[in-house]
Amino acid sequence: MLYLLDTANVEEIKRAFDLYPMSGVTTNPTIISKEKRSFLEILKEIRAAIGEDKMLHVQSISTKVEEIVKEAEYLKETIGGNFYIKIPVIPEGIKAMKILKAKGMNITATAIFTADQALMAARAGADFVAPYVNRIDNISGNGVGVVEEIVHLFDIYAIDSKVLAASFKNVQQVHDVSLAGAQSITVGSEIMDGLLSHPLTEWSVDQFTKDWSGVYGEGKVAYNSK
């Protein structure tokens, strides 16, 4: 499983990368706009925070082929590092994926709501496909089911593209797409923390500390206790 953080908040990114085995960061126009400052400044700060080797997925704003291609090339050159251009699965987007893949660009197909969209995007050259799990649920669909279908289709046709499941409201959805075979997820900070959180884990740690301190005293550890 590849863990990515879905945010443009640099402090949240630094914290997550310090604590967890993160593989990258994803952003979108809505996320970046919440920071209310220069988007290039934000992206450069994210790159500096995560390093050159970690993935940074940045979405194109344009909806026409020529503009998408120009935007992707500009962002790749400006931001650098392990860069992925996110492109929505609209007809112009699919064409742009084909052009950019021929140029050697890393591509993430986004705004996916059906397995057929994911399959076409993968055939067009997408390295990752991003189904919106919770948004599918919100329109009376089955987000986890769509992930399962995508994984199954990619297996049938021996496609190397990976599922980057997105749009979560809780840890259970993340657990379910993991069982469904999604190779990667992108989540907000709260859900990332929630993947480790459990009251019995916290209780156990507190109990270990209490039992140790009762015999050896607080602040003493095994290697220097006498």
Automatic annotation (TrEMBL):
It comes from the Bacteria. CDD domains: Transaldolase_FSA. PROSITE patterns: TRANSALDOLASE_1. Keywords: Cytoplasm, Schiff base, Transferase. Transmembrane segments: none annotated. InterPro entries: Aldolase_TIM, TAL/FSA, Transaldolase_3B/F6P_aldolase, Transaldolase_AS, TSA/FSA_arc/bac. GO terms for molecular function: aldehyde-lyase activity; transferase activity. It is found in: Cytoplasm. GO terms for cellular component: cytoplasm. One of its GO terms (biological process) is carbohydrate metabolic process. Its main location: cytoplasm. PANTHER family: TRANSALDOLASE. This is Transaldolase. It comes from Clostridium intestinale URNW.
